[in-house]
Structure prediction request, 406 residues.
Amino acid sequence: MKQLLLLLMIFILSVSANNGNMNNVKMRSVVNPGYKNSLAILTVKSKIKAYFSTISGVNLFEKDKNNQQMPELVNENKRQIIHIPDIQGYKTMKCDFHMHTVFSDGVVWPTVRVDEAWEDGLDAIAITDHIENNPSKSFLGGDDNSSYEIAAPYAKDKNILLIRGGEITRSMPPGHFNALFLSDVNKLDVLDYMDAFKAASEQGAYIIWNHPGWKAQQPDTCKWWDVHTELKKKGWLHGVEVFNEQEWYPIALDWCNDKKLTYIATSDIHGLIASTYNVHESHRPVTLVFAADKTEDALRDALFANRAVAWFGNYLAGSEDLLSAIFRASVVADFAEETQKSKIYNVKNLSDVAYQLASDDGTRIKILAYSETRVNIPNNHDLRFEVTNLMITATQNLKIDFPVSK
Ligand SMILES: [Zn+2]
Ligand SMILES: [Zn+2]
Prediction:
């Protein structure tokens, strides 16, 4: 009871010390206490301090002299959100299926790839260390499953799907290939490359031809060899990287379209993502996979069904139906007003892809990424547009009517 009375007195004292004038209330907390009431306020504070020290046994007002923290100096745990709408009843999964660690010729420990993926807003990755090229073998043991096994529990904690994979690394032909969804990467470490493909296939692997136009292997050309026809015939080739690291291969778009292979974009990162790509203003190359849910089985089913689109820079490369579905799900045009010369629409873009439209009569429309744009379509102009950054083949882009009819 005595304590309660003391508290009440302290409260009255502090109120009277601070609010003496209803006409002119000063924000004393923002200035130094160099005025006449400061002594009274300090006395009140010290009484409160003494009171709390007594009841808690801990002095909350003293600084810890052994360890003070400055959390403002370090990054918050921040994950980017990639905006690409779901389509055709599937979830849009953002994936990178090609990356290296110290277990081949990369520079990072496997868990770093998981952190980078989480920060970049990805849903799934595959670590694909070279099976035949492992410079750190004498230090790290040379088990081709190690990078997956080290990163897998960490990926699970961070809700990143980690796919077990490896890069079949051969001279041209046939070149380099990523085998995904493996159960034992070591079984692919064999002399004859056809035996490596066979071992991958026996594990139900999904196989991608990597960087087909890489100048180290095809300096003057990007050639489809007979062996690729043979691999395709055997069911041992399912996708092609149309984009790798910072380069893309227009002719590979034709292969994907003609031969019904999946369009794939990957980083093939060896160093650090943040020092290679401008992750704040742009993004690493990403394969968008349209899966029933966020599970390895659904991802595998989607890839084998070619439900994927390659995204790099401001370009999407994929089949006509998937590109059309992404465009339709992204762009919402609401009629705003009609002038004598044109119709004006408020156009929302729900995706991080800026769409560039061009019509035969020279009309150009830019629909900015993830924002609303006011678009002016002159009367009597063609409403059939080519979306110049949505590519189906090396020479064919998606064509749409704009505004899209519902
Ligand atoms: Zn490679
Ligand atoms: Zn690679």
User: Anything to note?
Assistant: The chain has eleven helices and 18 strands. The chain has three domains: 2-56, 91-318, 330-401. The longest strand covers residues 161-169. Residues 2-56 form one domain.
